[in-house]
Amino acid sequence: MKDKPLYEVRKIRDLRDMLKQSVELYGDQPAFMEKAARNLPYSNITMKEYAEDIDAFGTALLNQVSKGSRVAILAETRYEWYVSYLSVTNGTGVVVPLDKELPSQEIANLLNRAEADILIYSASKQKTVDEIRNDIPGVKNFICMDRLQERDDILFFEDMMVKGRKLLANGDRTFLDAPIDPEAMTILLFTSGTTSEAKAVMLSQKNVCANLEGMSSMVYIGPGDVFLSVLPLHHSYECTCGFLCPIYRGATIAICEGLRYILPNIQESKPTIILVVPLMLEMFHRNIMKKAKADQKMARKFELGQKATKSLLSLGIDLRRKVFSEVIDNLGGNLRMLISGGAAADPKILSDMQDMGIAAIQGYGLTECAPILALNRDVDFNNHAAGLPLPGVELKVINQDENGIGEIVGRGPNIMLGYYKNPEATAEAIDEDGFYHTGDLGYIDDNGFCIITGRKKNVIVSKNGKNIFPEEIESLLGHSPYVAESVISGEDSQRDDIIITATIFPDMEVVKEKLGPEPAQKDIQNLLEKEVQKVNEQLVSYKNIRQVIYRDTEFEKTTSRKIRR
Q: Which domains are seen in the chain, by residue range?
């Protein structure tokens, strides 16, 4: 499929230019679908209305603070978040999106490290803001997205909007004409990790625009597409791909009310595209398969449908969405694509979703790359691969071992400016040739696909020098219906070789179907050990799991749903 041409995309200089072009092309089309309150239907906000709100809020901001200010956003996904972001980047200063789930003191530390002047936040974070106020002396202006009570020490989003509209009506062009340097830092993002470990990534608008053009040339997104935003917006994956990309391409963003409301919001917003992380992809897949295989008759019908549609597809006849219409209808009726990122997705799950007529693909990136480095195309994909390099991005593998596996490094216009006030870490991450060292290990296959085998820092080295990639074994364990989550580690036995250990959190619902409603711990342990033995049969001997630890609680995770090792 290498002859498949890239999709045509328009050039954009910066995010203000991107929005201006989108208003000209898609001004009367819905940019957002939001709810005023729970149980109310979605209402639309057009691209033109969105741009007008940005101009109003941006104008009010620039009359409150000086140009170049650092503006932090601390809130759940909501329309005011989207307005705040482009109101800062498009003329005010530097935007600093923060993880709202962090403890109060970590938020304070990040605000201080970013040298933030302004904090825009939602009422849900008022208690946190009051707690840390004395610890963030640099923050001079506090803007609450909600009006809870009149306070002299807080500005309110609504008032700022009114002020901005009046200023614009009186001819104020401070914000509209504010110069933008596309190569300067206007986005400051903190990587996941504790406050001491989190690095502050400096991105320019050139970085982000290169990413938007690249990804949109590989996967078709256009007017008529509806994204349901379910991932946290402070994360670069959702921000670039699930927010800025739809605005760039004239698509619509439906705001999800929260994780517990994903399924009802899917029915209400009828999305065509959802960005997910592997855990969410597994949730969708598990729910589908549970219904499809509820009894033997349904399971047989489902399997026959898969075989029949595959045979017809080989003849150029695609009846997948018709045969599996019930599955599609349960996902709103219009879902055509699931894009997974953040970690490697299970190839079998991707394949199963594709068999039902949903283009499930995965991409690969890091915050430092704005964030996408490689992406599977909707017309050219390998379910075992992270993807093909974005146009303009060069990927190569260095320090290869005897199997051709080494560290993946990337170079291109999307690579960050560096880490804020950390030249040592910057020099360590970006070499003199401009290649960013990802810390991921893998190889590039004959078709140009990037295959990730694991994280450099997670590799277990046996005493005879063999490399063992935990992610490979965890992926195999994940195929067991009894395993919900697992972590592979290497324990030093002092005398013998490294003991490969699997710590497993089982899917208790499935375990109870097998062992009864109140299974004994020893029976669960035996069941897991049998599943591990099946995995060991697929591995060379030095990778064999030799110890199994049953865990009765979920692993701690980051807000992007990655297990903290």
A: 15-204 (3.40.50.12780), 277-454 (3.40.50.12780), 459-550 (3.30.300.30)
